[in-house]
Amino acid sequence: MLRILIADDHPVFRQGLKQIIAETPDMVVTEEATNGWEALKKARAGCCDVVLLDISMPSKNGIDVLVQLKKEKPKLPVLMLSMHPEEQYAMRALKEGASGYLTKESAPDELIQAIRKASTGGKYVSSFLAERLASLVHMRGEELPHETLSAREYQVMCMIGSGKKVTEIAKEMSLSVKTISTYRSRVLEKMKMKNNAELTRYAINNSLIH
């Protein structure tokens, strides 16, 4: 029996996932978490064989939880769930060790298929993502500027690109305004840009935001 931890701050979405999994005879939801810290705590306790982890969560976002879990439990499969389009976070999540990336609109059978694949050590990628990965293999050595950013820097860049102010980002990520400003400065420096407008243009041109 595959034991699954669902980490998502939306009760309705968690309930939907539980229902899908309940209809699968060899899978059971053993734990639920409503924020990043809770997800880490429960995964550390060894309550599960696969983690379903939302990217946007309070107190500690999903990418940070993923990075931490991969340090502590490198063999524990983590599937990322997100309302964001694949091109925005999927590559980043896979780079950090995720076993796959699913958008929240994914069909139930796709979710079950992804859980099975992850549980056997495989990686689940959609056909869209497979194409993107294939194109990156051809481009190896020509790393795009945003691919040099850390997970946190990338998240801040996407939020700035979508028009959010530093104060809004700080609140959403549970960090200080000063910390977000530091990340913004690092992003601008690494990407050789002068201001938010240039970041926004870059994010739109590279389909990182919609």
Please tell me about this protein's structure.
By secondary structure, the chain is of the alpha/beta class. It has two domains: 2-137, Response regulator (Rossmann fold, 3-Layer(aba) Sandwich); 145-205, Arc Repressor Mutant, subunit A (Orthogonal Bundle). Helix content is 52%, strand content 13%. It is built from ten helices and five strands, in the order E-H-E-H-E-H-E-H-E-H-H-H-H-H-H. It has helices at 11-22, 36-44, 62-72, 86-95, 108-119, 127-138, 151-161, 166-173, 177-190, 196-205, and strands at 2-7, 27-33, 50-54, 78-82, 100-103. Strands 2-1-3-4-5 form a five-stranded parallel sheet, with helices on both faces. Strand 4 (78-82), helix 4 and strand 5 (100-103) form a beta-alpha-beta unit. Helix 2 (36-44) packs parallel to helix 3 (62-72), helix 4 (86-95) packs across helix 6 and helix 7 packs across helix 10 (196-205). The longest helix is centred in the last third of the chain and has 14 residues, at 177-190. It starts with a strand and ends in a 5-residue tail after the last helix. The model has no long low-confidence stretch (mean pLDDT 87).
Quick take:
With about 210 residues, the chain is of the alpha/beta class.
Question: Which descriptors would you attach to this protein?
Answer:
210 residues, 10 helices, Rossmann fold, Arc Repressor Mutant, subunit A, globular, alpha/beta, five-stranded parallel β-sheet
CATH architecture classification of the largest domain: 3-Layer(aba) Sandwich
Oligomer: single chain
Number of domains: 2
Shape: globular
CATH class of the largest domain: Alpha Beta
The topology string of helices and strands comes to: EHEHEHEHEHHHHHH
Low-confidence stretches: none
